[in-house]
């Protein structure tokens, strides 16, 4: 399998940002024990989502409110058109990745792209001893049953990923990441391309025109059928 990092060179993040990302996730897990029987699971999920939206997690996030893609800085219609060429192309562009993340937030499915980003960061670990703590954080946040940001995986993929945690390596989350990638590509990506905010990005600046107003006129006797 081709290394995803070679496909997405523009997604490289510095080691300091990687550490900050996993530090936020680790602290969130400690603060929020994940027990399926404990009430308030929705509130836990929301609080963890807020933690993951801290500057150290989405540094450079400049798109404004969730779903407001029209505020994407320095995105020309020509660049936005390229996002529609393929899902790979969308994720390879920083502005495209940000815009897609904003869109998923409007659908309450941002855990998918956050898991994908976490896997990309995980594979950039430079030593074997870094894999275990990072793998544990990702598993407890996104994969284990009733995880606060649980992604949709089939039983076999979830079980295989769980077993690989005993001796985690660079490919530990490859199967799970591929499953989530295909889900986004086949389901969320087409909706993103047909969404009104994305379509507005395709318009040249100043091309939007208000809907024409119909002029009203007074009703006269000449409008009556048979009038002379």
Automatic annotation (TrEMBL):
InterPro entries: RGS, RGS_sf, RGS_subdom1/3, RGS_subdomain_2. The keyword 4Fe-4S does not apply. Keywords: Signal transduction inhibitor. GO terms for biological process: negative regulation of signal transduction. Pfam families: RGS. Residues 204-228 are annotated as: Disordered. It comes from the Eukaryota. Residues 86-202 form the RGS domain. This is RGS18 protein. The gene is Rgs18.
């Amino acid at each position: 399998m081709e290394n995803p990092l070679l496909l997405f060179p523009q997604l490289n993040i510095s080691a300091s940002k990687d550490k900050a990302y996993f530090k936020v996730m680790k602290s969130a897990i400690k603060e929020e024990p994940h027990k399926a029987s404990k009430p308030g699971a929705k509130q836990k999920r929301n609080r963890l989502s807020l933690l993951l939206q801290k500057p150290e997690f989405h540094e450079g996030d400049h798109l404004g409110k969730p779903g407001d893609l029209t505020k994407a800085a320095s995105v020309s219609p020509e660049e936005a058109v390229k996002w529609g060429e393929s899902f790979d192309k969308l994720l390879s562009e920083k502005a495209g990745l940000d815009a897609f993340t904003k869109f998923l937030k409007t659908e309450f499915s941002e855990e998918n792209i956050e898991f994908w980003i976490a896997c990309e960061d995980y594979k950039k670990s430079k030593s074997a001893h870094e894999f275990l703590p990072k793998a544990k954080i990702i598993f407890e946040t996104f994969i284990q049953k009733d995880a606060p940001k649980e992604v949709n995986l089939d039983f076999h993929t979830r079980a295989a990923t769980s077993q690989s945690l005993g001796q985690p390596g660079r490919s530990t989350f490859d199967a799970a990441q591929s499953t989530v990638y295909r889900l986004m590509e086949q389901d969320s990506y087409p909706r993103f391309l047909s969404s009104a905010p994305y379509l507005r990005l395709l318009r040249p600046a100043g091309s939007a025109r208000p809907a024409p107003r119909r002029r009203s006129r007074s009703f006269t006797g000449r409008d009556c059928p048979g009038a002379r």
